Please model this.
Amino acid sequence: MTLLYLFRDAFREMLTGSWRYWAWVAVLLLMIALGVWFYAQQVIQGLVVTHMSNQVSWGFYIANFTYLVGIAAAAVMVTIPAYIFHRKDIKDVVLMGETMAIAAVFMAIMFVVVDVGRPDRLWHLIPGIGIFNFPESMLAWDVVVLNGYLLLNMGISFYIISCHYGGCDPKLRHYFPFVIVGIFLAIGIHTVTAFLYSANTGRPFWSNPLLAPRFIASAFCSGPALMILGLQLIRSISNYPVPQSVIKLLAIVMTVSLQITLFLIGVELFTEFYNEGEHAASARYLYLGLNGFDALTPWIWTALLLIGIATFIGSVHVLRNNVFLLNVACVLTVVGVWIEKGMGMVIPAYVPTPIGEIYEYTPSFPEIAVSLGIWGMGLLLFTLLVKAALPIECGNLRRPGVDAPSPICPVSPEKR
Amino acid sequence: MRTYAMVIDTRTCIGCGDCVVACKSENKVPVGLNRDWVVEATSGRYPNLRTEFRSERCNHCSHATCVLLCPTGASHQWNDSNIVLVDADKCTGCKACIAACPYDARLVMHPEGYIDKCTFCHHRVEKGLDPACVSTCPTHCMHFGLLDDPGSDVSKLLLSRNYKTLMPETGNKPNVFYLV
Ligand code: SF4
Ligand code: SF4
Model:
């Protein structure tokens, strides 16, 4: 019964809001409509509407996929302090981190779905019905861990929310084992995704033991950065009390990860270029251009510049404690890492091809439109979940018959 | 596992491209796609130049990374041999195998929505024939047979001549050999 009430109230909450809330939802719906339209074209005409080719067979979609897996994995940066180190302040925002993970995994899965040429045959991936090439194929592993992580996060958040709604205290011992599994899965999704690339022996740019550590490091830059931005937004819109100590902790996590990321990039540059061999051709294409082809060069240097500035801001105590500058650093990190580990990591492995052809790739308009659509879906999912969860977490919304505690949000949450 | 191999003599290949044409007509490969191709590699410094012609295709690797990485089992090895085929009905077009192949031997964008590649003409091999490219070659520079059979053409050639494989460092154990 509680569940029925919960769903009813949650939907009611999602469907009521100020004009600002509706304007935001309308923008997202517009993005989704654009994406769906172009995806329909892609299904009808096939992958030819993209600029992917025999030479560069993974492009913009897989770049976004990689990035989003990182964002999803970064949720452990709130679950670990909250549940392992028992930071009370972080516990208040742990749900927000998990919601972000849910939206990010959802988008990541969508990006894989739009990338395949024959989505109608995806059912072959369902164990039991199709031949699921597990445990050999890294892609099969990715399917397992991504879906597992999604379900786990949904389960934990749902348990906490429904407990709060029903007026009981969620018992940590009920879900603690799942939290622990979730922490391992978070590292797992990103490691498996890195292995998906490292397993390709013919592509020296990927076949590199540093790939997984670099993935994890850069995930812990962009994830906390997004969380800092999101938490401040939620705080200003809804008055949900997000302690500044949480923001500070996330800022330090981001800074340390940025420093590690820059170090790892340096290590890679040294190995590639000190004794430049044939394996460095992709790196040369990315950073310096190869035989006059250099479509990615301006992008990667922009990314490095952005990451560099963000690291500087984060590393200087005064600058990091300045709210405005911290937000600048977060935006730079989000964008910089998106370029560096998206297009900057996926495309160069294909250039030159193993047999030496150089084939440049830039996303086609339909690819960009479909990607925008998926980002729209993810943001919408995130918005709706947060919209429904906030009044419950604030203490304003309880199941009928349960007394609402005194709300912790100073003013009743203005509708997002 | 039976291992079929192709042995190609780069010294008698004249780069005519007949193997490419033979494959296209035998296997009805769509316009714009090729399952095999001829590489013309020039080395040395003028005036001491040397050209090597190599007819390249899928190496039907003994350690086939494409089969390993395929999530649905669409890429598989035929009849307990090293011949790698793609089951068109099971291929989702995820392109993991393209990334996994060190020889660029796989073609995406087949109009029917699956990954196409050289099949070593297993439909001919079944009947005891050579692959179409091997039968067509005007200089008889291509040889096909079982590596496990010491009496086969390919085994004898590999015993008596110097040869190389492409990118052995990837660990794929390729089965197309080039006599040099
Ligand atoms: S050459 Fe490529 S496609 Fe052929 S078996 Fe080896 S990895 Fe697979
Ligand atoms: S594209 Fe097809 S054959 Fe290649 S790995 Fe994916 S499902 Fe397998």
In short: The radius of gyration of chain A is 22 Å. The first helix of chain A runs from residue 2 to 14.
